[in-house]
Amino acid sequence: NFDFAAEELENEGKKVVQIRVHDDIASAPVDRIEARRGTAGDIFVFKCVSAAADRSLSLEEVLRVGEKVNARVRSIGVALGAASSIDTGEPMFDLPIGSIEIGMGLHGEMGVSRADFEPAETLVPKMIELLMQDYFATQTPLERMAVMVNALGGTTVLELLAVTGHVRRTLGSKGLQIDRLVAGEFATSLDMAGFSITMLPLDEEIESLLDASCDSYCFTHRS
Hints:
alpha+beta, six-stranded mixed β-sheet, about 35% helix, about 20% strand
């Protein structure tokens, strides 16, 4: 659909560029990073690109900003229940009780693997360790970061805040500095039960773009 939209604009004489977000570390290995899916990391990319465009930067500069953020952002998600189909109302895939789905898509797609259910206090540290291993493999420095804990649509506020607390404690125990931490429903998959963790290493440029004021349905910020 994005390709079709780009083609239509090009046929109208518009200059078009695309950024394919690839933050989901579970969907492909490091050596095929561009084959990964875009999940909640989309939000950080959209935010920075929009702020850059709002400053009247050139299309080339807006693209550079987007690709820079895209190269840095990483996410991993788990689901405890499938999203319901908008056509049938039935679950979009079968997830046995006592199992969790890892690396599922935002449109209700199945994940890339399954594991036995475990509580957040042990699950969250494992997820963060996988994110850190991915950063180390790509030699991406982790000094200061923005972190997003995203509920997938069927997660309660109490559950989300409990997970967020474990995220903060785990990153703190590893000596990592969280400059910005947000938790909420930013990139949902209908009524899927679960959450994702997104990390974005910061520099002055990205920090400034994240701090720019915005007002949208899923993400609002006042500087």
